Amino acid sequence: MDSEPTPGPATKWSRRKRIVVYGLVTLITWLVLAYIFVPVLWKRYAHRHPEFEEMPGVTYTADGIPADPVNVALVGTNDEVLKIMLAAGWYPADELTSRSSLKIAAASVFKREYDTAPVSSEFLFGRKQDLALEQAVGDNPRHRHHIRFWESDKHGSDGRPIWVGAAIFDKRVGLSRTTAEFTHLTDANVDAERDVLFKDLEQTGELAEVIVVEGFHKVLEGRNGQGNRWYTDGNLYEGVIAAKTR
Predict the structure, then answer these.
(1) Strand partners, 221
(2) Same domain, 14 and 106
(3) Domain count, the chain
(4) Which residues does 151 contact at the CB level (< 8 Å), separation at least 6?
(5) Residue 44 is inside which H or E element, if any?
(6) Are 65 and 104 in the same domain?
(7) What confidence tens digit (pLDDT) does each residue in 156-202 have?
């Protein structure tokens, strides 16, 4: 009987090529599952989680008028929230008093820095914000990033409280559509401000994870208490602050 022919160089190369192709297919499959399919499942889970479904979607003015949309959340203690916000370059706003109101008015007119300028009160869960923080833009408080946070009665999986907030950008000073008073006029794209905040937070290295709660908002546009338009893609970003071991 004739013996089987010894595989030549072309046959060996063909086998190696198949091995390489199979390896690449396996790698691509893993990447798709690990970085696309599984995260999508988690986002859907987060969207269906009762803690998020029960959260209110907008804040209110003292007169009960719908104000700014809720678009961010943090999981952590009061001290942890303050610490990561400071590390991200956001600072607590001064209390709104006659003195601080005059100071921000003068700073706006004369273009003086006021990194801790006051913000007006908004209400959620029947009370005004627990924390108000901001980030100055240039040397004029007419333009600034700011956020109001409320500690909710919900908790993360580790037992720490969930803080919900409304992140808004003040683009200029003008007349309110609802009260005809001078006030900050806000940018309509609240998603852009949400993204700015989380970019700053991620750069601190203090976030354990970021969860996109898809479909948090069912109503995707509206007007705040000053009559300024807002719109959103409907998603809320939740950041879980890294817990320190004791």
Answers:
(1) 231
(2) no
(3) 2
(4) 78, 130, 161, 163
(5) helix 38-48
(6) yes
(7) 989 999 999 999 998 644 434 444 344 546 789 999 999 999 999 99
